[in-house]
C-alpha cells in the first residue's frame, strides 16, 4: 500500500511540474509574440465617427412613432 501511495504522489508531482513548465513557456512565448507584433505591425489609424443610421432616421420628420418606440424601449431597458 505504501508503494502505491508513493507512486501516486510522484505521478502527481510529475504531472503538476509538467503543467507548470508548459504554462510558463506559454506565458513567455505569448509575451515574445506580442512584442514582435507591436514592433512590426503598424497601428491602425482611428476612423472619424459617422452618424448612426437609426439616429439619422429618428431625426427626420414624420417618424414620431419610431421615436416613441425607441424611447419606450430605452425606458424598459433602464427599468431592469
UniProtKB/TrEMBL annotation:
Membrane topology designation: Single-pass membrane protein
Please verify whether the record's keywords include rRNA processing.
Answer: no
Enumerate the Pfam families for this protein. Answer: OAD_gamma (PF04277)
- Mark the transmembrane ranges: 12-32
Q: What's the catalysed reaction?
A: oxaloacetate + 2 Na(+)(in) + H(+) = pyruvate + 2 Na(+)(out) + CO2
Q: State the UniProt keywords alphabetically.
A: Cell membrane, Ion transport, Membrane, Sodium, Sodium transport, Translocase, Transmembrane, Transmembrane helix, Transport
Main EC class the enzyme belongs to: translocase
GO cellular component assignments: plasma membrane
Q: What is its EC number?
A: 7.2.4.2
Spell out the subunit comment: Heterotrimer of an alpha, a beta and a gamma subunit.
**The protein's name:** Probable oxaloacetate decarboxylase gamma chain
Organism from which the protein derives: Amphritea opalescens
